[in-house]
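Inverse folding, one chain.
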């Protein structure tokens, strides 16, 4: 569900997904800490990667989520 939540918020090419951890927790029906652990695992597995962090620059720094890109084969 977490990956589906990221995909839902990403651009059509799978890039620039930056929903908040709270939003992802609501989508995946889990705790925010679980979201953090699972995002780290998805990065480690190569399913997602950190994207262009400037995409979310308009959000205040203290509230800015990380930007992820889904690693979809071309």
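Residues assigned per position:
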């Amino acid at each position: 569900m977490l990956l589906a939540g990221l995909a839902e918020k990403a651009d059509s090419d799978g890039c620039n997904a930056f929903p908040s951890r709270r939003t992802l927790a609501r989508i995946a029906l889990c705790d925010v800490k679980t979201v953090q652990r699972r995002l780290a695992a998805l990065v480690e597995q190569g399913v997602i990667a950190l994207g262009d962090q400037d995409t979310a620059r308009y959000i205040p720094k203290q509230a800015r989520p990380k930007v992820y890109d889904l690693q979809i084969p071309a």
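The longest strand covers residues 48-50. The chain has one domain: 2-70.
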